[in-house]
Amino acid sequence: MVETQEVIKYPLDDYLRTERLPHIWCPGCGIGMALQALLWSIKELHEQGVIDRKKVCFFTGIGCTARASGFVKFDAIHALHGRAIPVATGAKLGNPSLIPIVFSGDGDIAAIGGNHLLHAARRNFDILVVMINNMTYALTGGQLAPTTPTGVRSTTTPRGNPENVMDTTKFVASLRPNFVARYSVTQPTILRTVFKKALPKRGFRFIEVMSTCTEIFGRHTGFRDPYELYSRLKKICKIKKISSIDEIKYDWENEITCGTFIDKDDPSFLDMYFKMYKPRGMVYGES
Amino acid sequence: MFDIVVIGERCKECGMCINVCPKKILERGEKTNSRGFYVTYSPKPEECVGCRLCEYVCPDFALFIRPSSSPTYILVQR
Amino acid sequence: MRVEFISGNEASAEGAMTAGLKVYVGYPITPSSDLFEYLSEKLPERGGIVFQGEDEIASINALVGAALAGAKAMTATSGPGLSLMAEGIGLACMVEAPLVIVDVMRAGPSTGIATHVGQGDIMQSRWLSHGPYNLVAFAPFSAQEAFDYTVKAFNVAVRLRLPVILLSDATIAHTRERVVIKESGEIEVEDFKRPTVPPEKYRFYDPDPRDLVPPMAFLGEGYYIHAESLSHDERGYYDTRPSVYRRLVERLVKKVERNKKSIVASKSYYTDDAEILFVAFGSVARSTLALVRDLREQGIKAGLFRPISIWPLDDEKLIEASKRAKKVVVVELNQGQLVEVIEDALWHHQRYDVEVLSLPMILSETPSPDEILDEINSKGWKLW
Question: How would residue A286 be classed by pLDDT, with cut points 50, 70 and 90?
Fold first, then answer.
């Protein structure tokens, strides 16, 4: 064993506001795992010269996941609850050379921000949305989310959730944007590869990351140890190839279908806008 | 062969790394950091196979594995 | 420079283009939609992008993103849309994003009468978001002023890093008039206040002590800015300490006061010897001015003070205009909002001798001079 005062850098330290670590997330929280995978993908793409890290911007709403904007060393806007997608949209319009990443939670993106998600996906607007799904409102203490499985208790559904659950990936896939995928923090290397694939693409890209919230969701479902909840997620997150989006399942008891469900290169919103309106003196990428 | 590097101040003692390690060579250390968390420790770093599962699941950017000619557990104190 | 015969909405659109508008995000709402349509046609060829959001919440938030990316950004809306923008305006103030909102006022409350005029957004434009903050609002009274003050709105927005509201109304918006359109160079157009230090020394919320405004780096330039909606320190890092909160919020509020002289605008008519001072703004000021001229012809010493900047008010000029006035009559198309502002300013300057009379007109049309006179007579005030 060696104890050292020497500064040995963590491999991602150049991409983190290290002075703000440790971050606010609870011990064993999946958000940090997902963020690690995302930062690795950016680092690799930057080092390969595929993207310029200076152009990468984080846009987050409000929630546990949304706090990520304060820990990453990128341009970042920590915006209002549910509004990360429109802020990212505006930034991309303001400077089409930016690479916006919306990194936020299920409550932020699927519930209060649902309308923005719908229309950004429909337009095939040029942003990457990473939705970390921990199946609860964690920062506010465990209220019901649209992604909370039916029957599961929350602080606002103390006798169990009576609602139908929202399968956000299936919903976004129905709008046919350029990229739709769902993976889990229990699949870290695949997650990194998928981020790497989606990041340089044009059009709307949506990646849902199933995550673990031991402190709150775990408490409500009887998993008191991060590893127990992680193992449960590992068991039900099954990677499949599908022939129809009807085959995508979001069932906490048996299967949360994972995989890359759409990967295409249709003209994006900005491709179309620049082609049809030719804003003077402006260019969008190589097209 | 690999070094197991732990940045002590970032560890939150969640135990994920200890649980996922296929060689079972990580354990809860006896030293706490300034926040009172028992920082992950490895008594036998020479048995590390470099699968990096511990690194991938560490949510706190606190632990990583690096190739080394003299495998060591390194606790960074800063 | 060229002369056109255009509406107030079109004049605002032209003003925005002169000011260097790069991103317009809108959502259709009467009576502002024709401004949106006009820009949809014209802005791309001037080097900008027009985008239709899914609602007004998307519009205002997109403007914040666009502004921080370094684009001059604007939207236009009306009362119901402005209500939806409340939280986003607070965000723009907090992250210090310069942007312009044209609020074409219509008859409220709620959906009211979409096609008719109102002036009921005075308090809303200033206080609609929660918490302490400050912003600027200008009210034009002609198509020419819609042009001039849209340019000025952009200048103030980028100089102070805050949202500026142009309080137009349905009558101004749709009245066609002669407008002199100037290009940048012929009229003062200000650019963003840019960092003077290298990225490693730059802090996104480090104010210039002279004007309290932090220079602004854009997204994508390598400054690694962190724009924060939570209470934050100079780096943009969330901080819950009361001292940090106080330093931030006091600055956000004070930066308008500190720069007030370069913002305020007003116009006074026949006020040198005015014993009865009318106060009115926007389209109602046009009828009130006509009434003042009628009264002058009858030998009555009436005058008009017309605030153009509503927030902040040009109170020094108000005091000057009211120096001989015994009575101040505030005419407005709502239940009495501007009167509160005027009374406040007079009392602040110890003008307790002036009687302030409120003349709210609950109409959904711009009143004629006779209608204003009838309303005065119905009150039984002995003004002359």
Answer: low
